[in-house]
Design goal:
This protein has nine helices and 15 strands. By secondary structure, it is α/β, with parallel strands linked by helices.
Length: about 325
């Protein structure tokens, strides 16, 4: 088969479409013929040499895919050869074939085409596990989503609105904020021109955000804590703004607030399977009812993965960038 390989860490040109050995499914695994994958920030970090795959995972980038099951390993039940699926991966999505633990497979939502389904697993799993399973966003609460026009952001806006929350977002520029508004965002903050702490305080009459979903990390840590409401929950899922920041514990204590930080890729198989099961129960019905949709910026041939990485690095996209094998 062919896959995107990384001969040595570097820029987008380090991504090479090369002939590699076919994977073989083991106990509890399925072999999926990949139709499409999607690009995530973690893929850029892996290409640069900063985010190695977990032990035993495929060395090729790609944390989600869609395709058809072509073989089943021992001990797999509930799936059949020929099933159209999408999947959460620890790696290997940038390839013509990938092995997937059966607990990380999802059916393609009814009414959605197979290619578009590749845009769902990673963002849906990240948002649902952090905003709902960990931070417990409830109807009537306010959530602040940083990077509202990103793949994570566009999914988070829709899921938060679907459960009856008030949604604030940060994004760069009026066009990207307008796209967030189309998805249901109520409070629009241009981080290039506005202070999100002040804007959120004004929009909430000083209450702040009950939940904040943060992709920035250290650069926003102090301001995020100041933006939290009493009993607020800050969920950190990215480090685009650095890894070390100062935390004012006095402010945290006075607000009886909590800070959590998680990554999805290295979680144990059982935890990933539980998240995937929660998606099938709670998120897939919303997608099939038309209340939540995948937001896709563009589709490129998988052999042009380098160009897809340049698109993400430029920051001009809204939603997901997909890579197609055919």
């Amino acid at each position: 088969m062919y896959a995107i390989t990384i001969s040595e860490p570097g820029g987008p040109e380090a991504l090479v479409w090369a002939d590699v050995p076919d994977p073989v499914p083991g106990e509890g695994e399925a072999l999926v013929e990949v139709v499409a994958s999607a690009v995530n920030r973690a893929d850029l970090l892996q290409r640069q040499g900063f985010y190695d795959p977990p032990p035993g995972a495929s060395p090729y980038p790609g944390l989600e895919c869609s395709g058809r099951i072509t073989a089943l390993g021992p001990g797999v039940s509930g799936w059949s050869v020929g099933d159209e699926v999408c999947a959460l991966l620890a790696g290997g999505g940038y390839a013509e074939k990938v092995v997937v633990p059966a607990g990380q497979l999802l059916p393609v939502p009814k009414g959605m085409d197979l290619v578009t389904a590749a845009a769902l697993p990673e963002v849906a799993a990240t948002v649902w596990s952090n905003v709902f399973m960990i931070a417990h966003l409830r109807p009537g609460e306010t959530v602040l989503i940083h990077g509202g026009a990103s793949g994570i952001g566009t999914m988070a806006i829709q899921l938060a609105k679907a459960v009856g929350a008030r949604v604030a977002v940060t994004a760069g520029g009026p066009e990207r904020l307008a796209r967030c508004a189309e998805l249901g965002a109520d409070i629009l903050i241009d981080y290039r021109q506005q202070d999100f702490v002040a804007e959120l305080e004004r929009a909430t009459d000083g209450a702040g955000a009950d939940v904040i979903l943060d992709i920035v990390g250290a650069k926003y840590l102090d301001r995020n804590v100041r933006a939290l409401a009493v009993n607020g929950r800050l969920a950190v899922i990215g480090l685009q703004g650095g890894v070390k920041g100062e935390l004012n514990l006095s402010t945290l204590l006075s607000k009886r607030a909590a800070v959590t930080a998680t990554s999805l890729r290295a979680r144990p198989l059982g935890e990933k399977a539980s998240i995937v099961a929660a998606l099938r129960e709670h998120v897939w019905p919303l997608i099939e009812a038309g209340r939540v949709r995948a937001v896709v910026d563009r589709r490129l041939p998988m052999a042009e993965a380098a160009e897809a990485h340049r698109v993400l690095e430029s920051g001009g996209h809204v939603g997901k960038v997909l890579l197609l094998t055919g």
